[in-house]
TrEMBL record:
This is Actin. Belongs to the actin family. ARP1 subfamily. Residues 1-21 form the signal peptide. Pfam families: Actin (PF00022). The keyword Kinase does not apply. Keywords: ATP-binding, Cytoplasm, Cytoskeleton, Nucleotide-binding, Signal. It is found in: Cytoplasm, Cytoskeleton. PANTHER family: ACTIN (PTHR11937). One of its GO terms (cellular component) is cytoskeleton. InterPro entries: Actin (IPR004000), Actin_CS (IPR004001), ATPase_NBD (IPR043129).
Length: 229
């Protein structure tokens, strides 16, 4: 007899924090200004976003990275000039794990994941610690998986096996402190949420989840919880 695996969804354990990619971009712009590069115009915000996506990374050991003051990267700008970027490269995405850096009181992403798992029944926690999947644009930072793994090992109970899974992503790299770009980029992780929604919407059974205008007018947002949760 073929065995089937049954997965239960603990909707009550879902967590969120209102700190995301745009906050990292704003923080990076401020850090670059402190380093002597002022990109304050609205049109230059897009440049800062590209710098974030192509040059920033998450440090596994922040203290060690802070000690490397002379480790800087040369980043080519659209006008042909070159920008020298220092510690801003890892300080900017650090807000995902330490939102207090920008004055936010949300728990960091690692704490959020750990809290979510601990809200579930003890019988499934071991499985959840070993089944963490990265999804979304902000997980694409170089070193994100390693940093999250390090934090989760620290937060999880002793002898707990933590496993993090994520599609591999190409796109850019660093050689001799100069950044270079590749056209070969895997987008599964970036668009995985949209892809999942697209697959769900294509199923015949999805019709049962449709909410009509009349249903919403009669019940309001309660209809969403009744049908989806």
């Amino acid at each position: 007899m073929q065995k089937s695996r049954i997965f239960l969804f603990c909707f009550f354990s879902i967590g969120r924090m209102d700190v995301a990619g745009r906050d990292v971009t704003r923080w990076l712009r401020l850090l670059l200004r402190k380093e002597g590069t002022d990109l304050h115009r609205t049109s230059e915000f897009e440049i800062v976003r590209e710098i974030k996506e192509k040059a920033c990374y998450l440090a596994t050991n922040v203290v060690k990275e802070e000690a490397n003051e002379n480790d800087k990267l040369i980043y080519p700008l659209p006008d042909g000039s070159r920008l020298e970027i220092g510690a801003s490269r890892f300080r900017a995405p650090e807000v995902l794990f330490r939102p207090e850096l920008i004055g936010e009181e949300w728990p960091g992403i690692a704490q959020l994941v750990n809290d979510s798992i601990r809200k579930c029944d003890m019988d499934v926690r071991k499985t959840l610690y070993g089944s963490i999947i990265l999804s979304g644009g902000s997980t694409l930072f170089q070193g994100f998986g390693d940093r999250l793994l390090s934090e989760m090992r620290r937060l999880s109970p002793q002898d707990t096996k933590v496993r993090i899974t994520a599609p591999q992503v190409g796109g850019c790299g660093v050689a001799n402190k100069f950044i270079f770009f590749s056209s070969r980029v895997k987008t599964e992780r970036l668009y995985s949420t949209w892809i999942g929604g697209s697959i769900l919407a294509s199923l015949d059974t999805f019709r049962k989840l449709w909410v009509s205008k009349k249903e919403y007018e009669d019940e309001g947002k309660k209809i969403l919880h009744r049908k989806f949760f």
